Here is the input.
Amino acid sequence: VSAGPAFVPFDADGALTEARDAADGRTRAAFLRATAGGAVGLAALAAMPRAARGATRNDVAILNYALGLEYLQAAFYTEAERGGAIRGPARRVLRRVGAVERAHVEALRSVLGRAAMPRPFFDFRGTTEDSDAFLRTAVAFEDLGTAAYKGQAPLIDSDAVLAAAISIHSVEARHAAWIRFVAGVTPAAEALDAPLTKAQVLRLVRETRFVTDAPRTRSGRTPPFTG
Amino acid sequence: VRPAVQIFLDTVAQHERRHVEYLAEALGGDAVAAPAIDLGTTTASERRIVATAVVLEDVAVFAYNAQAPNLTRRRLAAAASVVSADARHAAWARSLAGRPAAPAPTDRTMTVEQVAAAIARTGIAW
Here is the structure.
């Protein structure tokens, strides 16, 4: 497994907008509350001393790869929620799923600390502004996330990191089924869910051209902070 | 039952039979025999069927997640293909029941004893 960043190209400074920081802060608090009742997972992992996690360089690369996918998902739902074009049951689901994906981002960043890859820039090419395109993309993202975590789980060295990754893996599968249900397609297409390798996942992500070099404003909406 | 629930039951029953085959195959001579199961009144109405399905599928996910670090990584790869299918079933049953399909950012774990107790609370005896 390469130790390099999961996605290229991405901006080197990875600065977040003020609004994103505020949103992530809120979800992180909610995330920590939700996992406080003895549940294992990322919150527990983040709370562990570094040595107790036993994360190897290989594990750090896997966590960064997971972080890249979570950035992609979180940015997608956040943009769809802010844009306001998706309505009805799809909007209710995207708000809940988006909050969870933002919590995954924040928790992975806190586990990785300074080793966390910076946030890439995204251009979702109109898929957050049309209900059909949104649902198709969301189904693809959640199926992809499930297959990606499944592909990495057997490659993880540390049991603590494995427990955290596994506790996210099944939530990604729930999201996939939930969004499929709302989209009117079968929530569980196969008896056995297949994994995807990192190379397969990154190729699929590259083909979307959702990851871009630099921020773009295509939508014509007024930027949130114009002075 | 409603047609939407019938589709769920047909699909999930077929998946679970496949899981049994798959695990029995993986275990070979180490596979335990099928236990005697008394479903009680859990199949008496659509509401009870769906509510019981939510518990069984959620519990399966929590049980697999708890055991993941105890498996060899090779066995884990096989188990992971089952657990995400069960997580999909859980989310599907929850959607049919009008409940949040993914209520927490991470899925919890359950010990063998907690799993047995949760199943017993549904009214199923085994």
Summary: Chain B touches chain A through 41 residues (CB under 8 Å). The mean pLDDT of chain B is 96. Residues 3-27 of chain B form the longest helix (25 residues).
